[in-house]
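May I ask you to comment on the folded chain given beneath this request?
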Amino acid sequence: MFSIIQGTQGQSAKRRGLARHSAAIALIAASLLLGACGGGGNDGGSSGNINIGVTVGGRPGDDFIVAPGSSVGLAVRAGESVILEAGEPVFWTLLVGGAAVSPGVEVFYAGVNIRATTLDSFAVALDTFARFPLASPVPVTLVGTSTFDSAQVATVNILITN
């Protein structure tokens, strides 16, 4: 299971309430799935958990639990930076318009300059900038794959707004 901290500037109380409700449902579902796994033996591998901290505009936010293979959504304003930091080494992949973008390369897509920079083997920073108001929100995706267990994948869908 993945633990994610989410925060955005100007997020409404209603959206935070829905996000907390979604997190609670995801936590319950993950607990039920883990309880149904049976066994309990230790195969000598890692625990399979990737804890991911998300910082937006320099501020951390609410905790989110996402089961492996699932996703979580964030909304950020153009001009904000997002830092994703895992609790273990993770390979981060940025998808813009459905295409993978190499780390450190800045792309211009739908009115937004977007750059993902690998900070270390745990963290990636996503920087956004729009010179003009956006015609519509711009979706991008960051996928974190554990370097210990490639089956452990966290997907963070980011919606860049005005």
Q: What stands out?
A: Residues 2-161 form a domain with the Immunoglobulin-like fold (CATH 2.60.40.10). Confidence is low (pLDDT under 50) at residues 1-47.
